[in-house]
């Protein structure tokens, strides 16, 4: 009898362990097809916003929805604030993230009209470190096509993009420089940065 | 005069410095920042006085075709220099493609006014002596901001000087004709400024620190074009923010 118990508990432990391992190993990690599907959705949604013929403020609102739905806003915001996110309180971090989201939507959303008639083609998907890069090219009217890529990860628990790179220029890094400069202008005051950011873009 | 230029270029090459101590994460190698910032202020003043479009840019169809042709012509006149650099880089594939591009566009594209080669599926693949230096293993050097031209690195700047001499056309064309390409190139740069008004304005006039923004964007783009992963300082777009959320 005691033998049985031991055997049973051993089996239970090993099952539990296997379960844990299942969570820890990248067995559930995002596939190339899933990353590509995410980008296809982003492109489709952005195209429908551009062709909606809405006012600029309407487009900005729609863009913010797309950003929140498909982008890992938390990690992009944290990355943009850089080392200073270490000293930010959790309330500051939350406020900053919301302000940053609005700022990005206004800054890029108001320039959507430049992409009217644009055409995005996904060319390939490759696996890097812990994430997937979906590469493609954008063709705008009267211009040579340029390279674009999206970095997609499921580390947040969902398949989300955390960067968009155009001709080697990363949105995440470019905004890190910009946020750094805004913070310097406020002599490192994160609250002042947050209120500036609510108006910027 | 040419010899003087070449000596200056070769001298500046030996001065392609590398950082003496480790740079902080995301920090650019910019030891001349004070002078660079002065040059940046000057360039910005020139831009707002002469180049920045006043009011929204509306380009009619005729004008669009015209500026496109000027741009094509300038690109085509510059192609022999690209071809020389392809050879210097021993990049035979680009050498063949660009030679083909030049022949097709010169003959079928009426002296380069039309980019027929791109329609045939041979896209523009530019290079310069700055890239040749990269291929030869010369380090990127410090970040520098040049007058009018704007953001550069020591290596790219030296390359620009050498490229004044790498275009075979400048040796074979007679005097007034050989400046036509240069003039077209200036016109084309000015119309590029108009075409990309939104982007340029957002960097120069809407950034909290336009100098830092231009430096970051230039270095990211230039390194991407060269495929340069050896460059020190600056930011790595492929750093994993989930591994180190503070990495830039």
What labels would you give this structure?
heterodimer, A: 201 residues, alpha+beta, Nuclear Transport Factor 2, Chain: A, five-stranded antiparallel beta sheet, 7 helices, globular, B: mainly alpha, two-stranded antiparallel ribbon
What can you tell me about this protein's structure?
- The complex is a heterodimer of chains A (201) and B (248).
- Chain A is globular.
- Chain A has one domain: Nuclear Transport Factor 2, Chain: A (Roll), CATH 3.10.450.
- Chain A has seven helices and five strands.
- In chain A, strands 1-2-3-4-5 form a five-stranded antiparallel beta sheet.
- Chain A has 201 residues and is an alpha+beta fold.
- In chain A, 56% of the residues lie in helices and 18% in strands.
- Chain B is mainly alpha-helical.
- Chain B is built from twelve helices and two strands.
- Chain B has a two-stranded antiparallel sheet.
- In chain B, a hairpin with a 3-residue loop joins strand 1 and strand 2 (150-153).
- In chain B, helix 1 (2-14) packs antiparallel against helix 7 and helix 3 packs across helix 10 (180-195).
- Chain B is globular.
- The mean pLDDT of chain B is 87.
- Classes of the chains: A alpha+beta (201), B mainly alpha (248).
